[in-house]
Amino acid sequence: MSGSYYVPETSKWPALGSAAVGLMMIGMGVVLVHGVGSLVLGLGTVAVLAVMWFWFRDVVIESRQGLYDAQMDRSFRWGMGWFIFSEVMFFAAFFGTLYYVRVFALPWLDGEGAKGIATLLWPDFTASWPLMNPPDSSISGPRDIVSPWQLPLVNTLFLVASSITLTVSHEALKEGLRATARNWLIVTLALGACFLVVQGVEYYEAYTHYGITLDAGIYGSTFFLLTGFHGFHVTVGVVTLAVMLGRILKGHFSRDDHFAFEAGAWYWHFVDVVWIGLFLFVYVF
Question: Does the keyword Chloroplast apply (predicted)?
Fold first, then answer.
C-alpha cells in the first residue's frame, strides 16, 4: 500500500449512527421536558453503542490488515482533533450559560446593570450565588450546597492522578514496555471508576440531604447539566480505555503504531481539564 491512499468501501455505519444519535437525543429531550420517554432514550443509547462497536470493529480489522498508511494516520489525527474541538464547544455552551446567569441575569433581576428594570418582575429578589432562593416563589431552591473540599476535591485528585498514570502508560507503550503500559493503564481505569463511584455518592447526598435537583432553580439545573454531562464523558473515557487495555492484552499495539491508544489518551486528558473548570466554577467560586 506504499504511496497509496486507502479508500474504504461504502459504509452503512454513518447513516445508522446518525439515526441512533437522533433517537437518543429525542429520548433525552422528552425525558428532561416531560419526565417520560426513558424507553426511547434507552433504545437510542443501545443503538449508539451497537453502531460504535461494529464500526470501530471494522476500523480495527482494516488497521490490523495493514490497509492504513501515513495519510490515513493523519486523517485519524485530524478527525480526533476536530471531535475534541466539538466537545470543547459543547462544554463551552454550558460554561457560557453559567457565566451569563451569574454575571448578567441575576444582577439584572436585582436592579443592577443596563437591564436593571427587570427588578420590577420580582422587586423583593436579592441576587446571590449559589441561588438558594429563586425569585419565583413557586420554585424551591436547594437547602444547602455541596462542599468543594470533600467529595469534589477527592474526585479532582482522582482525575489528576489518572492523567499522570495514563501518561506513564503511554510513554511505556512508546518504549515497547507492554507490561508496564498495561499495569499503569489498569491503575488509570481504577481511578476513573473511583471517580464515578464518588460522583454517584455525591449525587445521592445532593438529592437526599441538600435538596439539589434539576427542579431546584437555576443552580440545580446548571449543577446537574454540567456535572452530569461530564460524568457521562468520564464513563465514555473509561469504556474507551478499557477497550485499549483489551487491545494491549491482544498485542495490537507497537511502539510506532498505537494511535487508537493515543486518541483515547487525548480524550481522557480533555475530560480531566474540563473537570478542573467544573471544580473551580461550579463548586469553588
Answer: no
Q: For the chain, which ranges sit under pLDDT 70?
A: 1-6
Rounded Cα–Cα distance for residues 37 and 105 (Å): 32
Q: Using CB atoms within 10 A of its CB, is residue 36 exposed (0-12), middle (13-18) or buried (19+)?
A: exposed
Which architecture, in CATH terms, is 75-284?
A: Up-down Bundle (1.20)
Q: Which CATH architecture has domain 1-68?
A: Orthogonal Bundle (1.10)
Report in angstroms the alpha-carbon separations of 125 from 6, 87, 99, 108, 121.
Answer: 63, 36, 19, 10, 9
Where exactly are the structural domains of the chain? 1-68, 75-284
Q: Is the peptide bond before 107 cis (omega within 30 degrees of 0)?
A: no
Virtual CA dihedral for 120, 124, 125, 127, nearest 10 degrees?
A: 100
Residue-wise pLDDT for 22-53, tens only, equals 999 999 899 888 887 789 999 999 999 999 99
pLDDT in tens, 58-102: 989 988 888 888 888 898 999 999 999 999 999 999 999 999 999
